[in-house]
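Review this:
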Amino acid sequence: MIFMTITSFVIAEICSALPLSGSIYIWAAESAGPKYARLVGFIVACWSTSSWITFTAVSCQSTANYIVSLLVVWEIEFPGGISNNNVKWRTVIWAVSEGFLILSVAMNYLPPRTYSRVFKFSVALIVVDFLLCLIWLPIGVHNTYGLRSAKDAFTMTYNGTGATPGWNWMLSFFFSAVVFIGFDASGHVAEETKHANVTAGRGIISSVIATALLGFATTILFLFCTPDLDVIFSLNSPQPFVQIYALALGKRAGVFMTVIAVISSVMTTTVVVVASSRLVYAVARDGVLPLSWWIGKVNKDRQPRNAVTVVFIFGAVLLCTILPSEVAFTSLLSSSGVSTIASYGLIPLLRLTMTPNAFKSSHFYLGRSAFPCYVVTVLWNGLVFSVLISPFYFPVDAQSFNFACVIFGFVTIFAIVSWWFTPAEKWLRQEQIEKALQSTEGGRDLDERLEVAPSVLPVEVGLSKWED
């Protein structure tokens, strides 16, 4: 909670100075300074694009796990057994996941006004889900298998990883930081946001604070409400909480809670598609991807729907990895978080070493606190990065190896090769970099900033929002 909040202020600082679609790779490029901007831009663009599209697939598969877990609750037999080793079972999960992907993408084609209403309804439903877990679940647990004691909730540990006690604690405690990944989403839709230089940065900070406070309350709640370890490890559904709902509240009430969770998860995926598509749109607009002219188009209401289609295609292909191998898809889950955490750590490292005195025009300029914030953010995200690429089970074999480090390395090498073979005039030209850096200097008013950096602050998309 503490270190991710500091990270959010560091990211918000540069977001306020450069509130653009695609945000994070532009922030990283400009943080690197003119000399290394293109190289860093290529690397972070590949990191973030692969990460966000993978997030989309991961979220759909997580939602599918809720639905198929109901088969376990109602004791419905499945040919070959309910196990990820069963290819028939993996086929069902794949089909359901693809269905949720289609639904989430379809909502991104709705007119903005309709989408807004659907989104507000879904947020209200998520709040209801949270309140039911906070009130109804502990009452149900108290009336059935009983709440755990404070001693069990706060002091009992279990080493199911096979790692040393110290590293088992690291995996158990710091892996939870993955829940904060993606808080930069509001920066990816900055060009569609009024007063983006303030609102986008505020969205980044408030996202982390809300996740921290509500996530902390949820964690404490579940520490007291989960059954004892023997019961937990006897649960064999893909999403154990579906069975926990049934144990605490009864089967029918458990179904009700599961349905609410599924709808909430679908809307989460819809928001992930929004952020992913804006990132793909921005990268294509800058000329990196094939078919950039098509992907970078916007329709009459300024929505990049072609980019949404690209996210759907790649997300659907990634979900197909469930079919041949459970290990392959599990590795994709891990790699999605690794790339984003690496980006969160790289930006403050570059600000610390390459551009420590830039971006003073930011509404969230850190001033004298910048140096300690950068140092803390680099060290913290480096720690989380090491946890996320670590094997989660020991001894390590082909089934337990965490391929996240391999995938991360491949994406990075691909980015460097792309940078090497892509002519400088094709993407993020040198004059663009210098103009963007000049536009963030203190003392310039808005008209002057738009004048010196029209290619980085695209007038055709952003001007109507910046006029205010």
Q: What stands out?
A: Residues 141 and 248 are 5 Å apart (CA to CA). The chain has 20 helices and no strands. Confidence is low (pLDDT under 50) at residues 442-468. The radius of gyration is 23 Å.
